[in-house]
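HUMAN: You are asked to prepare a plain-text protein record giving the amino acid sequence and the backbone structure tokens, both parts labelled.

ASSISTANT:
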Amino acid sequence: MSSVRDANLDRARSALADAVDGGTDVMRLAEDLFGLSDVVKTDPALRRSLTDPGRSAAERQGLARSAFGKHVGPATVSLVERVVSLHWSDPMALYDALEVLGITATLEDARAEGRLEDVEKELFSVSELLVRDRELREALSDLGGGTPHERADLAERIFGPHLSRWAMRLLRRGVGRTSHGRLLSTLRRFCERAASMRGLVFVTVEAASPLSEVQEERLRRLAAERLGHEVSLNATVDPSLIGGFRLRTGTTSIDSTVSTRVSQLKRALTH
């Protein structure tokens, strides 16, 4: 089932690429997609109708045109028609697809301005600050008080002067739509997507002290060899590790920290 969904997402991204290549206002397109994803998420009847396998693709496209045509730009309508023509076995997958397309469109606009790597680094820096500041992290997540819009405004007041417009837009989106306190994982997904669009795998490395350029390059080569792919390496410092490093990408982790080895030794001695 997930393979079908992934294939549909690839087709949806291909449709987005066609829209972007057509001289569209890409940030306007992104805003439209975010808005439509919210509508689809909160309107179960509309969501089911737009994914109803009992309707023909043409009928679903006509419904999308009727529902959204007066509220979004022509490029958005054309893109959504292509998206709803696909077979979505889970109606909520349509919401996910529109959300992913909004994120991708924002990153595409950054890429067109030569700022895609900057956006990735900015979002990573925000996530690292939030790792260290639990109170702020919770205030910006759905575990905190306030509406999603209020939390997004708080994020803009704090980070707005320091971020590009693309990173800030994604941060607002992540803060406003994070569920169950998973803000850090949401920001990581944004970073992973930005890296992927540059043909790289997003990798984080934690070390007990700042890495030298030589050490970073060595770890970059190690990660690339292990993954069989060039990587975007993002380093952070965690003194509690004592020594060594911890690499992470997706579900893969390489842990050679002293703190982990000490913990393993303690466990071995108690058994």
About this structure: Residues 207 and 237 are 5 Å apart (CA to CA). The chain has a mean pLDDT of 90.
